Fold this sequence. Notes:
The complex is a heterodimer.
Chain A: H1 4-18, E1 24-29, E2 32-41, E3 58-64, E4 75-78, H2 108-120, H3 130-138, H4 140-156
Helix pairs in contact in A: 3-4
Chain B: H1 2-13, H2 18-36, E1 40-45, H3 46-53, H4 58-68, E2 71-77, H5 83-98, H6 100-111, H7 113-119, H8 124-142, H9 148-155, H10 158-178, H11 180-183, H12 193-201, H13 210-220, E3 223-228, E4 238-242, E5 248-255, E6 258-264
Parallel strand pairs in B: 3-5
Antiparallel strand pairs in B: 1-2, 2-6, 3-4, 5-6
Active site (chain A): 94
Domain UBC core (chain A): 4-156
Keywords (chain A): ATP-binding, Nucleotide-binding, Transferase, Ubl conjugation pathway
Amino acid sequence: MSTPARRRLMRDFKRLQEDPPTGVSGAPTDNNIMIWNAVIFGYVILDLPHDTPFEDGTFKLTIEFTEEYPNKPPTVRFVSKMFHPNVYADGSICLDILQNRWSPTYDVSAILTSIQSLLSDPNPNSPANSMAAQLYKENRREYEKRVKACVEQSFVD
Amino acid sequence: MGDATGEAEAKVDAQVNQDVLIMEQQRQIEEEISEAIPLVGAKEDLLGTLEKEYISDPIYSMKAKDLSSKYSSIRRTRPDGNCFFRAFAYAYFERLLTCKDDYKGFYDIVSKSKDDLIELGFPQFTLEDFYETFMEVVERIGSGDMTQDELHELFNNQGQSNYIVVYLRLITSGKLQRDADFYLNFIDGNRTMTAFCHQEVEPMFKESDHIHIIALSAALNVGVRVRYMDRGDSAQVIAHDFPEGSAPAVHLLYRPGHYDILYEQ
Lengths: 157, 265
């Protein structure tokens, strides 16, 4: 049955295929348009002053939509193991646009690119992983070491 | 000291995703409301329904009487944070069903609204989705291919009803950003107008304030009269017209935190 949510998800998918942003990809699972698999590639964002230790990682995510999409945000979770100040142990992500600052004008492409920039530009003041937040602020070398371990793990997964 | 340890443990526990727990609870509350109250209800006799509601409240009873000297009926909307936008859209579309004189001007404004919003930097791809749904409804009204019952059904269909609300929110946001120099005077803090719109206007389920009403009524050139029913001393229910001095095409009843639709005598 075609509902606004399903119709919109078909449009999102079409746009993601026709006009894919650099370093992200996503597609509905075979038998359910409400559940998507996505991949974010960590890469250097040119206008940031620093490198990102997430470079070269390929991180897998799932995105679950409800019939209320796009009026409500989907639930997005990393499946790949992450070490990041704004990612919880279960892979869910603390990002304002996925919660109280969600706007119906965001689509899947906008969600994935926002998460991609969160990787290289974390917000340690609103931590979901306090260890990662602390290391990010106080011991950047150790932080980068832990992140690089995730990056290597992401090739295996 | 035991307490302090307990607190520390609670903090560690907070690493369990609190956001998810809060959102889950919010979802449950919303579900309860949505099971009890339709998005837009049936027309009710004003005096009867409000008198019953305020039987033991002298101030509100007095105000209900005053209101009933000017208005015959009320139509309730679901208190989900979208009530202003939904009440506005329903009341004005309902008027357009019979008032063909207003249609042409409204059609011209909304049909070019998409280009205005794209020019302001709204993402074209998603904007079009809302615009098309909105215009489909507007065009059906214009062609005479819509009955009152169909309109009512449409506004109670969550998908379509919410798409109309989203598009009105975007038009409101566009107006606020276009005339930011003026509207910035009405918002608190050091937010930019774009930030205010991202936080308070564009997200669904965010309640509306005066500034939303002023911007939307100005953007669409549709007069709105809001009747304020509160604990104030006056025996009368005070009216505010938006934009100031305009002839009202839509009448709304405001009770703290909520808007419903009013019908004149």
